[in-house]
Amino acid sequence: MGKIFVIGMGPGGLKDMSPRARKAIEVADLVVGYSAYLDLLQEHFLGKQFIKSGMTREVERCKLVLEKALEGHNVALVSSGDSGIYGMAGIMLEVVNKSGSNIDVEVIPGITAASAAAAVLGAPIMHDFAVISLSDLMTPWELISKRIEYAAQGDFVICLYNPKSKNRSGYINIARDIVMKYRDANTPVGIVKNVGRTGQTSVIATLENMLNNEIDMFTVVLIGNSQTYIEKGKMITPRGYRL
Ligand code: SAH
C-alpha cells in the first residue's frame, strides 16, 4: 500500500512552497491536482507523472488518488495555498474514511492566500480576523451573509475568498454593503490578485470605493477593522503596542 500526501503548494509556484511540500512531491510517484495549479509546478519536477483534473471534479480526484495509493503508489494531491483551507484535505480524509481503508494520509500545510496577500499589503491581519468564502456552491448564501454580518459586528478584519464569479457577481457588492453598516466608509480595503503568480497586482482602496476595482476569482479581498490605517503605502492593523 502506498501513502497519500495532501499538499498545500502556497499561492504561486515553487518559491512560496515549503521545503516539506517540495520533498513530498519529489518522493511521490504521482502528482494529482487541478490543471491550472499543476501547470505552475510541472517545469520544476521534470519526469514526474502528473494527472491533471478539472475544477469541479474534487470527489472523483480523491477517489482516483485513493485507488492509485491502494495499488501501491505514493500519491501527492496538490491544492493551491493551504490544502486545509477550502482545499482538498477534508474531502480526501472523508473519501478515505468512507472507503474503510487504513491508508496513511499526511496533510502538509501551505501559505494561504490571505497571509500571502497580507504580506504584499503590509500588515493588515495583525489582529483577530475572519476568513469567509463568498462561494455558494456548497454553502447557502443566507449562512454566508450571516457570517459577514457577525464578523463585521465583531470588528474582525475580514478576508474574502472566492469573491466573484460569472454566476454570482453581486455577492461582493452585498458583502460590502453589510460591512458598511458597521464600519467607516474610509476603512482600508486591500485587493490583491494573483499573489505570487505572473500578473500579481495589489490595490489599497476604501470600503466606499472598493467596487471600482477589478475583483475576480483570482483575487482575495482584505477589509480592515476599525483601527486599520494606511501609512507610506502600507496597510496596517495595529496590535496595540505602545510606541
Ligand atoms: N486553498 C486556497 C484557497 C482556495 S479557494 C488557499 O489556501 O489559498 C480559491 C480562492 O482563494 C480564490 O477565489 C481567491 O479568492 C483565493 N486565492 C487563492 N490563491 C490566490 C492567489 N494566488 N492570489 C489571490 N487570491 C488567491
UniProtKB/TrEMBL annotation:
<keyword id="KW-0169">Cobalamin biosynthesis</keyword>
<dbReference type="InterPro" id="IPR014776">
    <property type="entry name" value="4pyrrole_Mease_sub2"/>
</dbReference>
<dbReference type="GO" id="GO:0009236">
    <property type="term" value="P:cobalamin biosynthetic process"/>
</dbReference>
<comment type="pathway">
    <text>Cofactor biosynthesis; adenosylcobalamin biosynthesis.</text>
</comment>
<keyword id="KW-0489">Methyltransferase</keyword>
<dbReference type="Pfam" id="PF00590">
    <property type="entry name" value="TP_methylase"/>
</dbReference>
<dbReference type="InterPro" id="IPR035996">
    <property type="entry name" value="4pyrrol_Methylase_sf"/>
</dbReference>
<dbReference type="InterPro" id="IPR051810">
    <property type="entry name" value="Precorrin_MeTrfase"/>
</dbReference>
<keyword id="KW-0949">S-adenosyl-L-methionine</keyword>
<dbReference type="GO" id="GO:0032259">
    <property type="term" value="P:methylation"/>
</dbReference>
<dbReference type="InterPro" id="IPR006363">
    <property type="entry name" value="Cbl_synth_CobJ/CibH_dom"/>
</dbReference>
<protein>
    <submittedName>
        <fullName>Cobalt-precorrin 3 C17-methyltransferase</fullName>
    </submittedName>
</protein>
<dbReference type="InterPro" id="IPR014777">
    <property type="entry name" value="4pyrrole_Mease_sub1"/>
</dbReference>
<dbReference type="InterPro" id="IPR000878">
    <property type="entry name" value="4pyrrol_Mease"/>
</dbReference>
<keyword id="KW-0808">Transferase</keyword>
<dbReference type="GO" id="GO:0008168">
    <property type="term" value="F:methyltransferase activity"/>
</dbReference>
<feature type="domain" description="Tetrapyrrole methylase">
    <location>
        <begin position="3"/>
        <end position="209"/>
    </location>
</feature>
